[in-house]
From TrEMBL:
Catalytic activity reported: L-glutaminyl-[peptide chain release factor] + S-adenosyl-L-methionine = N(5)-methyl-L-glutaminyl-[peptide chain release factor] + S-adenosyl-L-homocysteine + H(+)
Residues involved in substrate binding: N185, P186, P187, Y188
Chain positions recorded as S-adenosyl-L-methionine binding sites: G119, T120, G121, T122, G123, D142, W171, N185
Keyword field contains Membrane: no
The gene coding this protein: prmC
Entry's EC annotation: 2.1.1.297
Family stated for the protein in its record: Belongs to the protein N5-glutamine methyltransferase family. PrmC subfamily.
Protein name as annotated: Release factor glutamine methyltransferase
Any GO MF annotation of the entry: methyltransferase activity
HAMAP family: RF_methyltr_PrmC (MF_02126)
PANTHER family: HEMK METHYLTRANSFERASE, MTRF1L RELEASE FACTOR GLUTAMINE METHYLTRANSFERASE
Amino acid sequence: MPTVWEARRHLAQSLLRAGSASPGLDARLLVEGSLGADNADPDTLLPAEARARLDDFAVRRLAGEPVWRILGEREFWGLPFRLSPATLEPRPDSETIVEAALAQLAGRRGEELALLDLGTGTGCLLIALLSELQQAHGLGIDLSEEACRTAAGNAALNGVEGRAAFQQGSWTEGLAGSFDLIVSNPPYIPSGEIATLSVEVREHDPLLALDGGADGLGPYRLLASSLPPLLAPGGIVVFEIGAGQGPDVVALMRAGGLEFSGSRNDLGGHERALIFTLA
């Protein structure tokens, strides 16, 4: 029966040989996941049940399945989010959207704000915002019914279920009302580039959440004209964008009646969040 340290070393070596970019980290996370405990004592013996789980984890990781998919949960904004096949993994770059939105609302945190999250997935953007805006309530929309169920479960997991609702739908179709903040991380990868993505993304993230049409701008075109009627006076829109898409998205939104109010870079220095208000 190996110790935690021995199991981690063996798995890290296997992952390194398979070309993993982070074999040590992956091995630590998977060993701890097999035990159901963080920061496990390196000298602890790995029980047979945990060893069986770890063997399964190892096979899946070596086949290209991402660590967080294997574990079924990923942290975002310091909060846990459960995953499902219908949802993207929440990624650190998307925290830029939350940061940008909160900066824009800095003087309004105590207000009863109405939030809208389009293409909500796990609900990570909406739930992170609700965790910070204690008087706000929000609605998350997703084309996938399964994603809506996952998001609702994550709202309960993070204690905001009383202020969050999730609804199956296609973008703004059928929506009415007035929102102080609209956020979205829409699909923005051009269809022709899907096949070039890493196996972790291409085979494990839902295509519905990746494919932005021929030029990656399809969802932005749909939203450009439909968002202004949904914005309250003083309302804000914050989008996530892909690399180099800023000028095109700004042009689309301006044509639809929104005014560009700035952008925010992610930790890698890439323009990630675009901010708009009513023109």
